[in-house]
Design brief:
Length: about 650
């Protein structure tokens, strides 16, 4: 029968930048402080330590019910086959006893042919049962893992923007991938091997007592010694395994940094420092792995010795009983086989108890993700009328015109108490081009995030076309928004595929027009496969400016009624920026737009400029009006361009 399958969870650690690491090399005190802080943070969600070794997660298993229910027939079949298979494993040694007692001792071959035929049939049935059981186990592992991944991914699509602000990509990836793999594997193989090992162990004990109670009692007296030894070594190996996973995360992190940060490393001439760090972690990995290998070797040797001693004692005691004529030689042989066969189930139970604790962590972390509620949710009435993310009712969507109003809006982030905006009011008529400027942290991005409904106002209302945005679905709003951020993101695939995320049925002519509108048509022209050229993972095959241009064209292709440009031209050279400015003036005509500007030259033609400071609009007007006031905007503009008087 197959052994219990154990999959070690691979943690993905968040890696720091080479610049940060270089700073820590120069400031060891700061590094020590950061490491202490990181140690505290890393304890969130890590596996329980050994003081929780015996805690069993039965309540956690209940949370997996919805993922197991669709496959209850397969699981029932696995249980039945497991019981039947373990029964066959108990029966097979009886053939050995029969052969010794009826053929060897009696010295006759009468009935041997029938015996061999029956024995071969039993072995064939046993093989078929094992094959089907293994196949069904793999089915459960794959199906449950797939369903959990799909369910968690779907749930992530419904979560608010704040969730992704508060949780790293590595954390979310581990929940969706590593935890689901571990849980699926543990359920499938734990069920099959658990049924087989437990039923085999119970069945063997009952059969041995039926065959000879005295020898069975003597054998069971030796079992606790094996259990104690196996438990001791298993605890040690669990600790080593946990330590190795943690070290492996650091080794992987250093390796990734060495590749992704190669340019920075070379420019800062810290190759030797990076090499020393990697070598130190690799040596630590080697040393810990060797120690674990020593314990594993010692464990196998000790268990083998203990098993040999137990078998020798059983053989001695059984020999005495056989010599007294109470038991036949064939029965003693079966006892020896059963005694040897009991070792593996006992070891499996001990391993299973230790793995239950670590799997409990996987279940709890996955459950925490699935139980995370969205902070920005449509009401049941809105969903009934407009649909949700996966089932939109577009036939009920009203056209969006573009009148925007912030009415007495106050806001603080979910994880903070300080108000970013207090009683903020602003009316933006349809077709108005609004520029938002201010120092870092003034609340510029927060303002457009509220407009996009990535966050809900703590107090007050945001109205579009005179209606509270909460009276319509988020999908309706986002379909009418063109949002271009400072850090562009492209998906793996071709240029055309990335553009079609904005409009799935876009024709080649429409894509070409959108690219031309933002002066990006030269990008596919210079590439070998044109619009079918691959952009790489995250657009890595393109420059930052090229990625920004394509993301800008993607927003244009969506033909939104409201444009939001969050420092969208900060990654583009001045020549291309001028082309986009010219195109933008045409594109934004008649559309409401909010532009957060890094370069103030890009917003001089805006209908209205908002100077934001401390969550309040301290100045409002056109470029010329604000420059004439010589207030905060004037100082910011002059500071950026190192000039005392405005250009006219």
């Amino acid at each position: 029968m197959s052994k219990a399958k154990e999959n070690s969870e691979k943690r993905k650690s968040e890696t720091q930048s080479p610049e940060k690491k270089f700073s820590e090399m120069k400031n060891p005190e700061k590094k020590e402080t950061l490491e202490k802080k990181k140690t505290v943070e890393d304890k969130k969600g890590e596996e329980p330590k050994d003081n929780s070794y015996v805690r069993l997660p039965w309540f956690g298993l209940k949370k997996l019910g919805p993922y197991l229910a669709p496959y209850k027939r397969i699981m029932i079949s696995m249980i039945v086959l497991g019981l039947f298979g373990s029964s066959l494993d108990i029966v097979v040694p009886q053939f050995q006893s029969y052969a010794l007692d009826n053929f060897v001792e009696k010295g006759t071959l009468e009935g041997l042919g029938i015996f061999i035929a029956i024995y071969a049939a039993v072995i064939l049935i046993q093989t078929i049962v094992n094959t089907i059981s293994t196949y069904q186990t793999c089915q459960i592992e794959m199906y449950v893992g797939r369903d959990m991944k799909q369910s968690s991914f779907d749930h992530l699509q419904t979560l608010s923007f704040s969730y992704f602000n508060q949780n790293s990509v590595g954390y979310v990836h581990a929940r969706v991938m590593s935890d689901t793999d571990r849980i699926g594997s543990w359920i499938a193989w734990g069920l099959m091997d658990g049924i087989w090992n437990l039923s085999y162990l119970i069945g063997v004990v009952l059969v041995m007592f039926w065959m000879n109670a005295r020898l069975a009692a003597f054998l069971l007296f030796l079992v606790p010694v094996t259990v104690v030894l196996a438990s001791y070594f298993q605890k040690k190996l669990v600790r080593f395994n946990r330590t190795i996973r943690e070290i492996n995360s650091r080794v992987t992190g250093n390796y990734n940094e060495g590749i992704t940060g190669a340019k920075t490393i070379k420019s800062m001439v810290i190759e030797d420092k990076m090499q020393e760090n990697f070598e130190a972690e690799s040596e630590n990995m080697r040393r810990t792995s060797v120690h674990m290998a020593h314990y594993q070797a010692l464990f196998l040797a000790v268990m083998s010795f203990a098993a040999s001693v137990a078998l020798a004692l059983v053989l001695w005691k059984g020999g005495v009983i056989t010599a007294q004529g109470v038991m036949e030689i064939g029965t003693l042989s079966v006892f020896m086989s059963y005694a040897l066969g009991m070792i593996e189930p006992i070891q499996w139970i001990i391993r299973a108890l230790s793995s239950l604790v670590s799997v409990q962590v996987n279940i709890e972390r996955f459950s925490r993700l699935m139980e995370t509620g969205t902070e920005v949710a449509d009401s049941p009435e809105v969903i009934e009328r407009y649909g949700d993310v996966f089932h939109p009712k577009m036939e009920n969507w009203e056209p969006l015109h573009g009148d925007v109003e912030f009415r007495d809006v106050s806001f603080h982030y979910p994880d903070g108490e300080e108000m970013i905006f207090e009683h903020f009011n602003l009316k933006v008529p349809q077709g108005t081009n609004v520029a938002i400027v201010g120092e870092t942290g003034a609340g510029k991005s927060t303002l457009v995030n509220l407009l996009c409904r990535f966050f809900e106002p703590t107090e007050g209302q945001i109205l579009i076309d005179g209606r509270d945005v909460r009276e319509r679905s988020q999908l309706w709003l986002h379909r009418n928004l063109g949002y271009v951020i400072q850090t562009p993101h492209l998906f793996s695939g071709s240029i055309a595929e990335n553009l079609r995320y904005a409009k799935q049925d876009a024709t080649r002519e429409e894509m070409q027009a959108a690219m031309k509108a933002v002066a990006a048509d030269s990008i596919p022209e210079r590439m070998e496969h044109g619009y079918d050229s691959e952009v790489g993972e995250g657009g890595d095959l393109l420059s930052t400016g090229e990625k920004q241009l394509i993301s800008f064209a993607r927003a244009v292709l969506a033909d939104p009624r409201i444009f939001v440009l969050d420092e969208a031209t900060s990654s583009i050279d001045t020549v291309t920026e001028k082309k986009i400015q010219d195109a933008t003036e045409l594109l934004l005509h008649g559309r409401t737009s909010f532009i957060i500007a890094h370069r103030l030259s890009t917003i001089r033609q805006a209908d209205v400029i908002l100077m934001v400071e401390g969550g309040k609009v301290i100045e409002k007007g056109t470029h010329e009006q604000l420059m004439q006031k010589k207030g905060a905007y004037y100082r910011l503009y002059s500071k950026q361009y190192s000039m005392r008087m405005p250009e006219s």
